[in-house]
Amino acid sequence: MPQFKEVSTQSGLHPKPAGLVLQYGTAGFRTNAKQLDHIMFRMGLLATLRSKKTKATIGVMVTASHNPEEDNGVKLVDPMGEMVTPTWEGYATQLANAEQEDLLAALQDIIEKEAIHMSQEANVFVGKDTRSSSASLSQAVLDGVSALGGHSKDYGLVTTPQLHYMVCCQNTQCKYGEATVEGYYKKLCQAFIQLTKNASNCTDDQKHLTVDGANGIGALKVREMESQLKKELHISLFNDGSEGKLNHQCGADFVKVQQKPPTGIKMNPGERCCSFDGDADRIIYYYTDSEGKFHLLDGDKIATLISTYLKELLTQAGLDLEIAVVQTAYANGSSTNYLENTMKVIVRCTKTGVKHLHHAAQEFDIGVYFEANGHGTVLFSKAAEEKIQQLAENSNINDERKRAALLLQNTVNVINQTVGDAISDMLLIEAILAIKGMTIQQWDAIYSDLPNRQLKVKVSDRRVIDTTDAERRAVSPAGLQEAIDSLVKNYREARSFVRPSGTEDVVRVYAEAETQESADALARDVSLAVY
Ligand code: 16G
Ligand code: ZN
Tell me, what's the ipTM? Predict the structure, then answer.
Protein backbone atom coordinates (compact mmCIF):
# COMPACT_ATOMS: atom_id res chain seq x y z
CA MET A 1 0.00 0.00 0.00
CA PRO A 2 1.56 3.33 -1.02
CA GLN A 3 0.59 5.11 2.22
CA PHE A 4 2.41 2.51 4.27
CA LYS A 5 5.75 3.80 3.05
CA GLU A 6 4.93 7.19 4.52
CA VAL A 7 3.72 5.61 7.77
CA SER A 8 6.94 3.69 7.97
CA THR A 9 9.10 6.80 7.49
CA GLN A 10 7.04 9.03 9.79
CA SER A 11 6.71 6.47 12.57
CA GLY A 12 10.50 6.43 12.79
CA LEU A 13 10.18 10.05 13.98
CA HIS A 14 7.72 8.97 16.69
CA PRO A 15 9.32 5.74 17.92
CA LYS A 16 7.78 3.56 20.58
CA PRO A 17 9.98 2.82 23.59
CA ALA A 18 10.44 -0.97 23.45
CA GLY A 19 8.41 -2.91 25.98
CA LEU A 20 6.16 0.00 27.01
CA VAL A 21 2.54 -1.17 27.39
CA LEU A 22 -0.36 1.24 27.81
CA GLN A 23 -4.10 0.71 27.82
CA TYR A 24 -6.94 2.73 26.28
CA GLY A 25 -8.89 3.16 29.54
CA THR A 26 -12.10 4.91 30.65
CA ALA A 27 -10.83 8.24 29.41
CA GLY A 28 -8.45 7.15 26.63
CA PHE A 29 -4.69 6.95 27.16
CA ARG A 30 -3.40 8.93 30.10
CA THR A 31 0.07 8.97 31.65
CA ASN A 32 3.24 11.06 31.94
CA ALA A 33 3.54 13.20 28.80
CA LYS A 34 7.05 11.89 28.10
CA GLN A 35 5.64 8.46 27.24
CA LEU A 36 3.05 9.61 24.77
CA ASP A 37 4.63 10.79 21.52
CA HIS A 38 4.27 7.44 19.69
CA ILE A 39 0.75 7.01 21.11
CA MET A 40 -0.29 10.36 19.63
CA PHE A 41 1.13 9.52 16.21
CA ARG A 42 -0.64 6.18 16.24
CA MET A 43 -3.94 7.71 17.38
CA GLY A 44 -3.64 9.99 14.35
CA LEU A 45 -3.39 6.83 12.24
CA LEU A 46 -6.29 5.17 14.01
CA ALA A 47 -8.56 8.23 13.78
CA THR A 48 -7.88 8.28 10.03
CA LEU A 49 -8.94 4.63 9.73
CA ARG A 50 -12.02 5.28 11.87
CA SER A 51 -12.92 8.18 9.61
CA LYS A 52 -12.55 6.05 6.48
CA LYS A 53 -14.66 3.33 8.09
CA THR A 54 -17.49 5.63 9.26
CA LYS A 55 -17.20 7.97 6.25
CA ALA A 56 -17.42 10.81 8.77
CA THR A 57 -15.21 13.27 10.62
CA ILE A 58 -13.52 11.89 13.76
CA GLY A 59 -12.12 13.94 16.66
CA VAL A 60 -8.88 13.55 18.58
CA MET A 61 -8.52 15.48 21.85
CA VAL A 62 -5.14 15.86 23.52
CA THR A 63 -5.73 16.34 27.25
CA ALA A 64 -5.30 14.69 30.64
CA SER A 65 -8.25 16.54 32.18
CA HIS A 66 -7.76 16.89 35.96
CA ASN A 67 -4.40 15.08 36.10
CA PRO A 68 -1.26 17.05 37.04
CA GLU A 69 0.43 19.29 34.46
CA GLU A 70 3.20 16.70 33.75
CA ASP A 71 0.66 14.17 32.46
CA ASN A 72 -1.14 14.16 29.18
CA GLY A 73 -3.55 11.94 27.34
CA VAL A 74 -5.64 11.41 24.24
CA LYS A 75 -9.10 10.26 23.36
CA LEU A 76 -11.00 9.71 20.16
CA VAL A 77 -14.40 11.22 19.41
CA ASP A 78 -16.91 9.33 17.25
CA PRO A 79 -19.11 10.96 14.55
CA MET A 80 -22.01 12.13 16.73
CA GLY A 81 -19.60 13.51 19.31
CA GLU A 82 -19.74 10.42 21.50
CA MET A 83 -16.89 8.26 22.85
CA VAL A 84 -15.39 5.77 20.41
CA THR A 85 -16.94 2.25 20.46
CA PRO A 86 -15.42 -0.55 22.62
CA THR A 87 -14.11 -2.54 19.60
CA TRP A 88 -12.10 0.48 18.52
CA GLU A 89 -10.85 1.05 22.07
CA GLY A 90 -9.41 -2.44 21.67
CA TYR A 91 -7.76 -1.49 18.37
CA ALA A 92 -6.34 1.61 20.04
CA THR A 93 -4.65 -0.55 22.67
CA GLN A 94 -3.34 -3.00 20.03
CA LEU A 95 -1.94 -0.25 17.86
CA ALA A 96 -0.40 1.58 20.80
CA ASN A 97 1.42 -1.49 22.05
CA ALA A 98 2.72 -2.90 18.74
CA GLU A 99 6.52 -2.78 18.79
CA GLN A 100 8.04 -0.50 16.18
CA GLU A 101 8.72 -3.30 13.66
CA ASP A 102 5.15 -4.68 14.04
CA LEU A 103 3.30 -1.41 13.49
CA LEU A 104 2.44 -1.93 9.81
CA ALA A 105 1.16 -5.46 10.51
CA ALA A 106 -1.01 -4.13 13.36
CA LEU A 107 -2.41 -1.47 11.04
CA GLN A 108 -3.05 -4.02 8.29
CA ASP A 109 -4.86 -6.23 10.77
CA ILE A 110 -7.36 -3.48 11.65
CA ILE A 111 -7.85 -2.59 7.98
CA GLU A 112 -8.70 -6.22 7.18
CA LYS A 113 -10.91 -6.85 10.20
CA GLU A 114 -12.96 -3.73 9.47
CA ALA A 115 -12.81 -4.13 5.68
CA ILE A 116 -11.68 -0.52 5.30
CA HIS A 117 -11.38 0.96 1.82
CA MET A 118 -8.15 2.86 1.91
CA SER A 119 -9.19 5.00 -1.06
CA GLN A 120 -12.01 6.50 1.07
CA GLU A 121 -11.38 10.10 2.13
CA ALA A 122 -10.65 10.80 5.82
CA ASN A 123 -11.19 13.89 7.98
CA VAL A 124 -9.93 14.38 11.51
CA PHE A 125 -10.50 17.31 13.90
CA VAL A 126 -7.77 17.82 16.50
CA GLY A 127 -7.90 19.87 19.71
CA LYS A 128 -5.64 20.34 22.72
CA ASP A 129 -5.63 21.67 26.27
CA THR A 130 -3.17 24.18 27.76
CA ARG A 131 -0.50 21.74 29.04
CA SER A 132 3.02 22.62 27.92
CA SER A 133 3.34 19.18 26.31
CA SER A 134 0.10 19.49 24.32
CA ALA A 135 1.55 21.45 21.38
CA SER A 136 4.11 18.84 20.32
CA LEU A 137 1.80 15.94 21.15
CA SER A 138 -1.03 17.31 19.01
CA GLN A 139 1.51 17.81 16.21
CA ALA A 140 2.28 14.08 16.49
CA VAL A 141 -1.45 13.35 16.00
CA LEU A 142 -1.49 15.58 12.90
CA ASP A 143 1.60 13.74 11.58
CA GLY A 144 -0.24 10.43 12.00
CA VAL A 145 -3.25 11.69 10.07
CA SER A 146 -1.15 13.00 7.19
CA ALA A 147 0.98 9.83 7.05
CA LEU A 148 -2.17 7.91 6.07
CA GLY A 149 -3.25 10.61 3.64
CA GLY A 150 -6.08 11.97 5.83
CA HIS A 151 -7.17 15.62 6.01
CA SER A 152 -6.99 17.30 9.37
CA LYS A 153 -8.26 20.48 10.92
CA ASP A 154 -6.34 21.73 13.91
CA TYR A 155 -8.65 23.62 16.30
CA GLY A 156 -5.73 24.39 18.60
CA LEU A 157 -6.71 25.28 22.16
CA VAL A 158 -10.28 24.14 22.84
CA THR A 159 -12.13 22.50 25.72
CA THR A 160 -12.87 18.78 25.35
CA PRO A 161 -16.63 19.41 24.97
CA GLN A 162 -15.99 22.09 22.33
CA LEU A 163 -14.18 19.50 20.21
CA HIS A 164 -17.01 16.98 20.68
CA TYR A 165 -19.45 19.70 19.64
CA MET A 166 -17.45 20.56 16.52
CA VAL A 167 -17.33 16.92 15.39
CA CYS A 168 -21.08 16.56 15.85
CA CYS A 169 -21.82 19.81 13.98
CA GLN A 170 -19.63 18.74 11.08
CA ASN A 171 -21.27 15.33 10.76
CA THR A 172 -24.83 16.65 10.96
CA GLN A 173 -24.19 19.19 8.18
CA CYS A 174 -24.44 21.96 10.78
CA LYS A 175 -27.94 20.99 11.93
CA TYR A 176 -26.53 20.89 15.44
CA GLY A 177 -24.75 24.22 15.00
CA GLU A 178 -21.80 25.76 13.20
CA ALA A 179 -18.53 23.79 13.52
CA THR A 180 -16.55 26.75 14.86
CA VAL A 181 -15.72 28.02 18.34
CA GLU A 182 -17.60 31.25 17.47
CA GLY A 183 -20.62 29.18 16.40
CA TYR A 184 -20.52 27.38 19.74
CA TYR A 185 -20.52 30.64 21.75
CA LYS A 186 -23.26 32.09 19.58
CA LYS A 187 -25.58 29.12 20.01
CA LEU A 188 -25.09 28.81 23.77
CA CYS A 189 -25.09 32.51 24.60
CA GLN A 190 -28.16 33.32 22.51
CA ALA A 191 -30.10 30.55 24.23
CA PHE A 192 -28.86 31.77 27.63
CA ILE A 193 -29.97 35.36 26.92
CA GLN A 194 -33.40 34.13 25.80
CA LEU A 195 -33.75 32.06 28.97
CA THR A 196 -32.78 34.91 31.28
CA LYS A 197 -35.48 37.14 29.74
CA ASN A 198 -37.79 35.04 31.90
CA ALA A 199 -36.02 36.15 35.04
CA SER A 200 -37.22 39.71 35.23
CA ASN A 201 -36.74 40.10 38.99
CA CYS A 202 -33.09 39.12 38.97
CA THR A 203 -30.87 41.67 40.75
CA ASP A 204 -27.30 42.46 39.77
CA ASP A 205 -26.14 40.62 42.89
CA GLN A 206 -27.87 37.46 41.77
CA LYS A 207 -26.17 37.72 38.38
CA HIS A 208 -22.76 37.37 39.95
CA LEU A 209 -20.76 34.13 39.79
CA THR A 210 -17.23 33.31 40.93
CA VAL A 211 -15.47 30.83 38.62
CA ASP A 212 -12.33 28.79 39.36
CA GLY A 213 -10.86 28.01 35.94
CA ALA A 214 -8.40 25.38 37.32
CA ASN A 215 -5.64 27.35 35.53
CA GLY A 216 -6.71 25.59 32.37
CA ILE A 217 -8.43 25.87 29.03
CA GLY A 218 -11.86 26.57 30.56
CA ALA A 219 -10.58 29.89 31.90
CA LEU A 220 -9.38 30.99 28.45
CA LYS A 221 -12.71 30.06 26.93
CA VAL A 222 -14.79 31.86 29.58
CA ARG A 223 -12.78 35.01 28.78
CA GLU A 224 -13.49 34.57 25.06
CA MET A 225 -17.21 34.13 25.65
CA GLU A 226 -17.87 36.70 28.38
CA SER A 227 -18.84 39.68 26.23
CA GLN A 228 -21.59 37.69 24.52
CA LEU A 229 -23.39 37.15 27.83
CA LYS A 230 -24.53 40.78 27.61
CA LYS A 231 -24.18 41.43 31.34
CA GLU A 232 -26.79 38.78 32.12
CA LEU A 233 -24.02 37.02 34.01
CA HIS A 234 -21.11 38.76 35.75
CA ILE A 235 -18.21 36.38 36.10
CA SER A 236 -15.29 36.88 38.49
CA LEU A 237 -12.69 34.56 37.08
CA PHE A 238 -9.91 33.15 39.27
CA ASN A 239 -7.18 30.61 38.55
CA ASP A 240 -7.12 31.80 34.96
CA GLY A 241 -3.68 30.33 34.23
CA SER A 242 -1.80 33.62 34.49
CA GLU A 243 -0.01 32.58 37.70
CA GLY A 244 -0.96 29.21 39.16
CA LYS A 245 -0.29 25.71 37.91
CA LEU A 246 -2.91 23.64 36.10
CA ASN A 247 -5.20 21.72 38.52
CA HIS A 248 -2.82 22.42 41.40
CA GLN A 249 -4.90 22.89 44.58
CA CYS A 250 -7.80 23.97 42.42
CA GLY A 251 -10.33 22.72 39.92
CA ALA A 252 -13.45 20.54 40.17
CA ASP A 253 -11.66 17.32 41.08
CA PHE A 254 -9.68 18.94 43.90
CA VAL A 255 -12.80 20.59 45.35
CA LYS A 256 -14.91 17.42 45.13
CA VAL A 257 -12.32 15.03 46.57
CA GLN A 258 -10.98 17.38 49.26
CA GLN A 259 -14.41 18.81 50.04
CA LYS A 260 -12.89 22.26 50.47
CA PRO A 261 -12.53 25.47 48.43
CA PRO A 262 -9.73 25.79 45.88
CA THR A 263 -6.80 28.06 46.62
CA GLY A 264 -6.47 31.22 44.58
CA ILE A 265 -10.08 32.41 44.72
CA LYS A 266 -11.85 35.09 46.71
CA MET A 267 -15.03 33.77 48.31
CA ASN A 268 -17.56 35.91 50.14
CA PRO A 269 -20.04 34.18 52.48
CA GLY A 270 -23.19 33.03 50.70
CA GLU A 271 -21.88 33.73 47.18
CA ARG A 272 -22.18 31.21 44.37
CA CYS A 273 -18.88 29.73 43.19
CA CYS A 274 -18.04 26.99 40.74
CA SER A 275 -14.94 25.10 39.61
CA PHE A 276 -14.14 23.63 36.20
CA ASP A 277 -11.68 20.82 35.70
CA GLY A 278 -8.56 20.96 33.48
CA ASP A 279 -10.37 20.37 30.18
CA ALA A 280 -13.69 21.96 31.21
CA ASP A 281 -15.93 18.92 30.93
CA ARG A 282 -16.82 18.91 34.64
CA ILE A 283 -18.33 21.51 36.97
CA ILE A 284 -18.93 21.64 40.72
CA TYR A 285 -20.72 24.42 42.68
CA TYR A 286 -20.13 25.50 46.27
CA TYR A 287 -20.41 28.32 48.82
CA THR A 288 -19.45 29.07 52.40
CA ASP A 289 -22.15 30.08 54.89
CA SER A 290 -21.99 32.96 57.38
CA GLU A 291 -20.21 30.67 59.88
CA GLY A 292 -17.53 29.85 57.34
CA LYS A 293 -18.77 26.29 56.76
CA PHE A 294 -18.14 24.95 53.26
CA HIS A 295 -21.07 23.52 51.25
CA LEU A 296 -20.53 21.47 48.12
CA LEU A 297 -23.14 21.08 45.37
CA ASP A 298 -21.91 18.19 43.26
CA GLY A 299 -23.15 16.39 40.16
CA ASP A 300 -26.04 14.83 42.10
CA LYS A 301 -27.33 18.22 43.23
CA ILE A 302 -26.92 19.52 39.68
CA ALA A 303 -28.90 16.59 38.25
CA THR A 304 -31.64 17.20 40.81
CA LEU A 305 -31.88 20.92 40.00
CA ILE A 306 -32.02 20.31 36.26
CA SER A 307 -34.51 17.46 36.39
CA THR A 308 -36.82 19.35 38.77
CA TYR A 309 -36.78 22.33 36.42
CA LEU A 310 -37.43 20.19 33.33
CA LYS A 311 -40.23 18.28 35.01
CA GLU A 312 -41.97 21.50 36.01
CA LEU A 313 -41.69 22.86 32.47
CA LEU A 314 -43.05 19.63 30.95
CA THR A 315 -46.08 19.85 33.25
CA GLN A 316 -46.65 23.53 32.39
CA ALA A 317 -46.26 22.80 28.68
CA GLY A 318 -48.60 19.82 28.93
CA LEU A 319 -46.02 17.60 27.25
CA ASP A 320 -46.04 13.92 28.05
CA LEU A 321 -42.34 13.06 27.87
CA GLU A 322 -40.57 10.50 30.02
CA ILE A 323 -37.71 11.91 32.04
CA ALA A 324 -35.00 9.84 33.73
CA VAL A 325 -31.88 10.57 35.77
CA VAL A 326 -28.82 8.38 35.26
CA GLN A 327 -26.28 8.11 38.08
CA THR A 328 -23.40 5.86 39.17
CA ALA A 329 -22.75 4.03 42.44
CA TYR A 330 -21.06 7.22 43.69
CA ALA A 331 -24.35 9.12 43.71
CA ASN A 332 -25.20 10.17 47.23
CA GLY A 333 -27.95 7.94 48.68
CA SER A 334 -29.98 11.03 49.61
CA SER A 335 -30.07 12.18 46.00
CA THR A 336 -31.32 8.82 44.74
CA ASN A 337 -33.91 8.73 47.49
CA TYR A 338 -35.11 12.26 46.71
CA LEU A 339 -35.29 11.64 42.95
CA GLU A 340 -37.15 8.34 43.27
CA ASN A 341 -39.44 9.01 46.20
CA THR A 342 -40.12 12.75 46.21
CA MET A 343 -39.71 13.76 42.59
CA LYS A 344 -40.84 10.39 41.31
CA VAL A 345 -38.58 10.30 38.29
CA ILE A 346 -37.00 7.14 36.90
CA VAL A 347 -33.47 6.63 38.22
CA ARG A 348 -30.91 4.35 36.57
CA CYS A 349 -27.47 3.39 37.87
CA THR A 350 -24.60 2.51 35.50
CA LYS A 351 -20.92 1.72 35.74
CA THR A 352 -18.51 4.65 36.17
CA GLY A 353 -17.41 6.38 32.94
CA VAL A 354 -19.24 8.81 30.74
CA LYS A 355 -19.93 6.39 27.91
CA HIS A 356 -22.03 4.15 30.18
CA LEU A 357 -24.15 7.01 31.49
CA HIS A 358 -24.53 8.51 28.03
CA HIS A 359 -25.84 5.25 26.56
CA ALA A 360 -28.31 4.72 29.39
CA ALA A 361 -29.61 8.29 29.04
CA GLN A 362 -30.24 7.77 25.32
CA GLU A 363 -33.03 5.34 26.15
CA PHE A 364 -35.43 8.00 27.41
CA ASP A 365 -37.27 10.98 25.92
CA ILE A 366 -35.16 13.13 28.23
CA GLY A 367 -32.15 11.60 29.99
CA VAL A 368 -30.35 13.71 32.59
CA TYR A 369 -27.02 12.11 33.45
CA PHE A 370 -24.43 13.24 35.96
CA GLU A 371 -21.55 11.61 37.78
CA ALA A 372 -21.18 12.86 41.34
CA ASN A 373 -17.84 14.34 40.24
CA GLY A 374 -19.68 16.89 38.10
CA HIS A 375 -19.50 15.38 34.63
CA GLY A 376 -22.87 15.32 32.94
CA THR A 377 -25.40 16.70 30.51
CA VAL A 378 -28.97 16.19 29.28
CA LEU A 379 -29.98 14.20 26.20
CA PHE A 380 -33.23 14.80 24.32
CA SER A 381 -34.51 12.15 21.92
CA LYS A 382 -35.23 13.29 18.39
CA ALA A 383 -38.95 12.80 19.01
CA ALA A 384 -38.78 14.87 22.20
CA GLU A 385 -37.00 17.71 20.42
CA GLU A 386 -39.60 17.67 17.65
CA LYS A 387 -42.51 17.80 20.11
CA ILE A 388 -40.91 20.74 21.92
CA GLN A 389 -40.25 22.49 18.63
CA GLN A 390 -43.83 22.01 17.38
CA LEU A 391 -45.31 23.29 20.61
CA ALA A 392 -43.04 26.34 20.63
CA GLU A 393 -44.26 27.19 17.12
CA ASN A 394 -47.94 26.55 17.89
CA SER A 395 -49.91 29.78 18.11
CA ASN A 396 -53.10 28.15 19.42
CA ILE A 397 -51.98 27.52 22.97
CA ASN A 398 -52.35 29.60 26.11
CA ASP A 399 -49.58 31.86 27.42
CA GLU A 400 -48.42 29.53 30.16
CA ARG A 401 -47.93 26.61 27.76
CA LYS A 402 -46.27 28.87 25.22
CA ARG A 403 -43.83 30.25 27.78
CA ALA A 404 -42.93 26.75 28.98
CA ALA A 405 -42.47 25.50 25.41
CA LEU A 406 -40.16 28.40 24.55
CA LEU A 407 -38.18 27.86 27.74
CA LEU A 408 -37.79 24.18 26.84
CA GLN A 409 -36.68 25.08 23.34
CA ASN A 410 -33.98 27.46 24.58
CA THR A 411 -32.98 24.95 27.25
CA VAL A 412 -32.31 22.38 24.51
CA ASN A 413 -30.12 24.95 22.74
CA VAL A 414 -28.04 25.94 25.77
CA ILE A 415 -27.13 22.29 26.41
CA ASN A 416 -24.20 20.54 24.75
CA GLN A 417 -25.73 17.12 24.20
CA THR A 418 -22.53 15.52 22.93
CA VAL A 419 -20.81 15.26 26.33
CA GLY A 420 -20.65 16.90 29.78
CA ASP A 421 -19.59 20.52 29.35
CA ALA A 422 -18.64 22.86 32.21
CA ILE A 423 -19.44 26.05 30.24
CA SER A 424 -22.78 24.82 28.94
CA ASP A 425 -23.76 23.31 32.32
CA MET A 426 -22.81 26.59 34.02
CA LEU A 427 -25.05 28.61 31.69
CA LEU A 428 -27.92 26.16 32.18
CA ILE A 429 -27.61 26.18 35.98
CA GLU A 430 -27.30 29.98 36.09
CA ALA A 431 -30.40 30.32 33.89
CA ILE A 432 -32.42 27.91 36.03
CA LEU A 433 -31.48 29.69 39.27
CA ALA A 434 -32.36 33.04 37.70
CA ILE A 435 -35.70 31.85 36.29
CA LYS A 436 -36.69 30.19 39.55
CA GLY A 437 -35.36 33.13 41.59
CA MET A 438 -33.48 30.59 43.66
CA THR A 439 -30.39 31.18 45.79
CA ILE A 440 -27.62 28.59 46.07
CA GLN A 441 -28.70 27.98 49.68
CA GLN A 442 -32.24 27.17 48.57
CA TRP A 443 -30.88 24.86 45.89
CA ASP A 444 -28.64 23.17 48.47
CA ALA A 445 -31.59 22.67 50.80
CA ILE A 446 -33.57 20.52 48.32
CA TYR A 447 -32.08 17.53 50.15
CA SER A 448 -29.18 16.96 52.55
CA ASP A 449 -26.29 14.79 51.46
CA LEU A 450 -25.41 11.78 53.56
CA PRO A 451 -21.86 12.22 54.91
CA ASN A 452 -19.47 10.20 52.78
CA ARG A 453 -15.82 9.31 52.35
CA GLN A 454 -13.72 8.09 49.43
CA LEU A 455 -10.40 6.34 49.95
CA LYS A 456 -7.94 4.68 47.63
CA VAL A 457 -6.10 1.49 48.48
CA LYS A 458 -2.91 0.34 46.81
CA VAL A 459 -2.97 -3.42 46.20
CA SER A 460 -0.60 -5.71 44.29
CA ASP A 461 -3.17 -6.44 41.56
CA ARG A 462 -6.37 -4.44 41.46
CA ARG A 463 -7.79 -6.68 38.72
CA VAL A 464 -8.56 -9.42 41.24
CA ILE A 465 -11.57 -7.30 42.20
CA ASP A 466 -14.48 -7.88 39.89
CA THR A 467 -17.85 -6.19 40.35
CA THR A 468 -21.46 -6.53 39.27
CA ASP A 469 -24.74 -4.57 39.64
CA ALA A 470 -23.23 -1.33 38.24
CA GLU A 471 -20.15 -1.77 40.45
CA ARG A 472 -22.22 -1.85 43.63
CA ARG A 473 -21.28 -5.43 44.55
CA ALA A 474 -17.99 -7.32 44.38
CA VAL A 475 -18.11 -10.84 42.94
CA SER A 476 -14.42 -11.57 43.52
CA PRO A 477 -12.25 -12.16 45.48
CA ALA A 478 -14.44 -14.65 47.32
CA GLY A 479 -15.70 -13.40 50.67
CA LEU A 480 -15.05 -9.69 50.07
CA GLN A 481 -18.69 -8.73 49.50
CA GLU A 482 -19.80 -10.70 52.57
CA ALA A 483 -17.17 -8.84 54.61
CA ILE A 484 -18.41 -5.47 53.30
CA ASP A 485 -22.04 -6.43 54.01
CA SER A 486 -21.27 -7.26 57.61
CA LEU A 487 -19.26 -4.06 58.14
CA VAL A 488 -22.07 -1.94 56.69
CA LYS A 489 -24.47 -3.44 59.26
CA ASN A 490 -22.47 -1.75 62.04
CA TYR A 491 -23.59 1.75 60.96
CA ARG A 492 -26.90 3.50 60.39
CA GLU A 493 -28.03 4.54 56.89
CA ALA A 494 -24.78 3.05 55.64
CA ARG A 495 -23.67 1.87 52.21
CA SER A 496 -20.25 0.99 50.85
CA PHE A 497 -18.67 -0.48 47.73
CA VAL A 498 -15.24 -1.06 46.21
CA ARG A 499 -14.12 -1.01 42.58
CA PRO A 500 -10.83 -1.08 40.72
CA SER A 501 -10.02 2.37 39.30
CA GLY A 502 -10.03 2.67 35.51
CA THR A 503 -7.49 5.50 35.54
CA GLU A 504 -5.06 4.79 38.41
CA ASP A 505 -3.40 1.69 39.80
CA VAL A 506 -5.58 1.65 42.94
CA VAL A 507 -8.81 0.22 44.34
CA ARG A 508 -11.38 2.87 45.24
CA VAL A 509 -13.49 2.59 48.38
CA TYR A 510 -16.72 4.55 48.89
CA ALA A 511 -18.69 4.72 52.11
CA GLU A 512 -21.62 6.80 53.29
CA ALA A 513 -23.45 6.79 56.60
CA GLU A 514 -25.55 8.87 58.97
CA THR A 515 -22.58 10.79 60.39
CA GLN A 516 -19.18 11.80 59.04
CA GLU A 517 -17.47 9.79 61.78
CA SER A 518 -19.38 6.67 60.74
CA ALA A 519 -18.66 7.23 57.03
CA ASP A 520 -14.94 7.68 57.79
CA ALA A 521 -14.84 4.61 60.04
CA LEU A 522 -16.72 2.46 57.54
CA ALA A 523 -14.41 3.51 54.69
CA ARG A 524 -11.43 2.60 56.86
CA ASP A 525 -12.92 -0.79 57.83
CA VAL A 526 -13.68 -1.63 54.22
CA SER A 527 -10.18 -0.56 53.10
CA LEU A 528 -8.73 -3.06 55.54
CA ALA A 529 -11.02 -5.78 54.17
CA VAL A 530 -9.69 -5.07 50.65
CA TYR A 531 -6.07 -5.63 51.63
C1 16G B 1 -12.62 9.10 33.77
C2 16G B 1 -14.01 9.23 33.26
C3 16G B 1 -14.91 9.75 34.33
C4 16G B 1 -14.84 8.86 35.55
C5 16G B 1 -13.42 8.66 35.99
C6 16G B 1 -13.35 7.58 37.03
C7 16G B 1 -14.70 9.83 31.00
C8 16G B 1 -14.61 10.85 29.93
N9 16G B 1 -14.05 10.14 32.12
O10 16G B 1 -12.07 10.34 34.10
O11 16G B 1 -16.20 9.77 33.84
O12 16G B 1 -15.57 9.39 36.61
O13 16G B 1 -12.64 8.25 34.89
O14 16G B 1 -12.02 7.31 37.33
O15 16G B 1 -15.31 8.79 30.86
P16 16G B 1 -11.62 6.04 38.15
O17 16G B 1 -12.00 4.82 37.34
O18 16G B 1 -10.17 6.19 38.37
O19 16G B 1 -12.39 6.09 39.44
ZN1 ZN C 1 -12.19 16.49 32.38
Answer: 0.98
